[in-house]
Write the structure tokens for this entry.
Amino acid sequence: MSTDDPALITCRPIGRVISRFTEAQGMPIQTAGALDEPLQLEVYAEFEAGLRDIEGFDHLWLLTHLHQVPQERLEVVPFLDQHSHGVFATRAPARPNRLGLSLVRLIGREGRWLQLAGNDLLDGTPVLDIKPYVPRFDVRETQRIGWFEGHLDRLASTCSDGRMTGDGSPGPTTSSR
Amino acid sequence: MSTDDPALITCRPIGRVISRFTEAQGMPIQTAGALDEPLQLEVYAEFEAGLRDIEGFDHLWLLTHLHQVPQERLEVVPFLDQHSHGVFATRAPARPNRLGLSLVRLIGREGRWLQLAGNDLLDGTPVLDIKPYVPRFDVRETQRIGWFEGHLDRLASTCSDGRMTGDGSPGPTTSSR
């Protein structure tokens, strides 16, 4: 697929993450496993007007570009498992388009800076969109969670093993996303 | 920002939506308002391997490119309200990067075709990612939902007014996203 393919879609970051995590090794694999980990979001000046009234929400979705993922994959061994799955049946970062979805808690806003908690993002991660979390839209009664069943008790103690792929055999710090 | 800006991020669709909605006028504004509306997702052949084991999940997130949105905006009057808000405090489609987040129910899979329910998407919408819905990751106890408070009782009866912007005065079919 050439770079001038009309099907390609170009996005520009609306902001970036400031995080204490500067390498994948040892970082949380989901915000749910690190609810109190702080992070900051700097929204670029040209997008600041889009933040008006965001203070009214407890939680936000961040759509991000997982810029440090070295290679996109279609099949991965996710951090929380030892078996391979199709990447669209996982939350592994090494996926086509490297798009991330992080649910974060809004602590406060100062101008175009948001103070957040729940951090599974590397420092400098480009943010492509912010959406308010609305349970009426975003919560469904769910019975079947595939291979995750029985694998979530290790969430809080599982870290990225630093490969950012979520595939291969588990590293020294066994991890799953 | 020029098109060769290194900060720009290029995505390629991994599939496309087949939907009965071919124009924005009258379509649901959220999947939660149209839980039984069917849609299909064709995943392109080169990405089919990524679907393995997806059958185990009740619900999926679709990250989409809202390709028919004519203009990105920073402030909008969302379908469900009559007052203007910053777009990042709304779910309006007319937003920077035009990225959509649709929570859908997985009915079945035949090869690289997924049968889904919960449809707020136009026919032909490019899909950039599929993620499994995992309540442990995606559900938070939430008290504050900003301006949506008191505006959600009209969700099921509210349709897009066709402008795909979620701004301006409400159209003939009053609508809010």
Q: What stands out?
A: Strands of chain B lie at 9-11, 15-18, 38-43, 59-65, 75-76, 85-86, 99-110, 113-117, 126-132. The radius of gyration of chain B is 17 Å.
